[in-house]
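Late entry, written up from scratch paper. The run itself happened at the end of the previous shift, but nothing got recorded in the book at the time, so transcribing now.
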Amino acid sequence: MIRLPLWILGALLLAGIVHLSTVLAMPQAATQDAYSRLAPLTPVNTVVPLAPPTAQAAIMPFMDSAFAVAVCRYDLSSGALKLNAPVSLAYTSVTFYTRNSVAYYAINDRAAGRRAIELDLMTAEQHAEMPEEEGVTAADRLIIESPTTTGLIALRALAPEAGLMAMARRALAGAQCRIEQTQQ
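Output as recorded:
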């Protein structure tokens, strides 16, 4: 009599373990993640606008047709990256992802409080090697530490009406993502 509930409990426990391990292993096992899909379309350390999604095709799943989107695939192995993204009139956001599509930082135009979102992206080692600059405060220079040397930066500009999509695309066209030249 007691054996049947124990077998059921054991089966449920085993099913839970298999389910949890599958969910945790899926991001590493996926071959068509965002980075892999964008690799043939985007050069490294360059902002590239993405084509707007259609009902038949979209470069990335779940793209919103109300946003103009641009991406920068980054590689910090040769130095820190400087990002400059002009803000649009409606709304602009910048989101940082690791190589395995884990979001680790996001900022929008309201948080930036300026006409452009300007920041430096670097690894923790590169940040530790930076010389201390007198007179430069955290408010003057936003530094983001990337947990990995490669990843994606997604820039999005809202077009609240279809007629304003050109304005949103122009805002993203002025964005730059480049390796910072060290001064010697």
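Residues 1-30 form one domain.
(Scratch paper discarded after transcription.)
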